[in-house]
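Appendix B. Raw example, untouched.
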Amino acid sequence: MVFAILDARTLGLVGGVLLLLGAASIVVQVLRRRTDLGLDPGIIENLHRRVRAWLILFSGLAAAFLIGKTATVVLFGLIAFWALREFITLTPTRPGDHRTLFWVFFLITPLQFVLVGMGWQELFSVLIPVYAFLLIPARIAISGDYKRFLERTAKIQCGLLICVYCLSHAPALLVLRPNSLPAATTASSEAAASAEASGGTDAAAAEAKPAGPAVESEGDPYRNTRLLFFFVLMVQLSDVAQYLWAQVPSKHLIAPSISAARTWEGLLGGTASAMLVGGALWWATPFQGVWWWMAAVMSGVVSLMGFAGGITMSAIKRDRGVKDYGTLVEGHGGVLDRIDSLCFAAPVFFHCTRMWLGN
């Protein structure tokens, strides 16, 4: 299937977000012109850049969804490739690294996303942290250049881990195998069947035991599509919510030497805001029934990991003495400046969701 027709619930989620972003863009444009309102122009300009970046990201994601799973995986692969390029070019490389970087960019990176698209979780989970991490230092050593060997090796490994391996867990959400009965529910059902076979009141007692988390059945082909969109939405929402909460007058900076925009008020307020919105969007996730609150919990986890990604990548920029990782889009910095939160949150969200759903 070249073009996929999304179901009403998925179209409602994606279309609703795009409409809200369109409305937000208009509102911000009006606020930029109304200088008489006394609003901080720096905050308004920051919101303008964020909304534009959101429109580009979510429009591209929506288009990829319509084309199909392969297009979505390719989209994330291209983003990862460009982000890794920005990371590597942030610091100078030596001639002895060039052949190693060739293998990293043109073999390991595309292979990681091929494995993701094929759903080979056992392989894409170990390709980079095992095989690539062993290949990189060995290949650099073969070049015969030992100067700053550990620094050069660590830089390439760190970039590959964050930009490619971590980000690849976002499209990997599309290949989570549907499982209508998580481990806890399956165990309960098996116990009930065993008790029924033995006869008597044991069967009734087994049936009375609480079941595990209720999730959508495997009859919903767009469950994972909504899950991926929900994840990206929560990361971006928590990011802007943390920024807005950080503007409160009595702010307490977390790491002043690294970021003047990261405050405890922003972290706590942004996480709480993301949890409220995530809980309200439980219908877009596999967490159903009385377990709807897990959508809020997962949104809180995403917010915390997104914060960790943002402040970590800010520390790297401060170390290198740069403001942005790149200038792909004027006024928006580089790709890595836009997806640093996604990179850190993706593997944690993927594995927490996978364990919860019993896949």
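End of appendix B.
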